[in-house]
Each structure stands twice: as structure tokens, then as C-alpha cells.
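Q: C-alpha cells for this one, please.
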Amino acid sequence: MYKNVAYLAVLFNLLFCQQLWAESSKYQSPLTVDGTETISLEQAKNMHADGVIFIDVRSPRQYKKRHIPGAAHLYIKESFTEENLLKLGDKNTPMVLYCNGAHCSLSYKAAEKAVAWGFTNIKYYRDGFRAWRKDGNPLEYGLPQ
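A: Here is the predicted structure, written as C-alpha cells:
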């Protein structure tokens, strides 16, 4: 009986510690990216309403499933290049880069690349698609026509 209780106590402690470790080790993207402006959900909504270019850097599968309406798709691992950004606007054109949110590294990596290529008006939407969706904003499904 004592052994069973001891085993249960050890098992409980292992599970509890694993959960604490998992919580503390969740990735968080940087709050800012040098050379960019980090924007909030409210700023993103206003910029979207004003027609600022939005660029989704998530995978094709995620983009196709749903994305911010009108967002261009430049997957960070394939089509996110200086040449493709220049097809959307010049190096001073405001562009909002987003991925899945603070737990996703794609938008900050894209923002760093864009700044390195000389783009001067990059908006880093750190909270990204997840915050947009949770706020009840419109979504677009599928690929552009």
C-alpha cells in the first residue's frame, strides 16, 4: 500500500513538473524588431481599413485555410523575397507582416529580412492572425482568384 502511494506521489510530481516546464518553455516571439514598428490589434484593424498592404508569411496550407482579407501570401520559407516584396510596393510602402501570433517566429524573421533588404516602413503585427480571429474580425478562405 505504501509503495502504491509513493508511486502515485512520484507520478503526480512528474506530471505536475512537466506541465510547469511546458508552460514556462512556450516560445514567445520578440516584442519588437529593430527597424520596424510593432503594431497592436487596433492599429492593425485601422491599417487594414485604410488599405495598407498585409502580408501573411505562414504556410500555404494555413493561408488557404483562412487569412486576413486581402492579405498577400509570401511564405517565409519559399516566396518571401526582396523581389516579391517589391512587386507589392516600394521600399517605403507601409507593409504589415503577420503569422500566427506571439508564439510564432515567422513574422519577426520576415520583418528582420525586410529591414535588412532596406524596407523602411515595415509594421510587425506580433499578435498576428490568432488575435485577429479571436477578436471576431472578417476572414477570407481559400486562395485568391
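A few notes: Residues 29-134 form a domain with the Oxidized Rhodanese; domain 1 fold (CATH 3.40.250.10). The radius of gyration is 20 Å.
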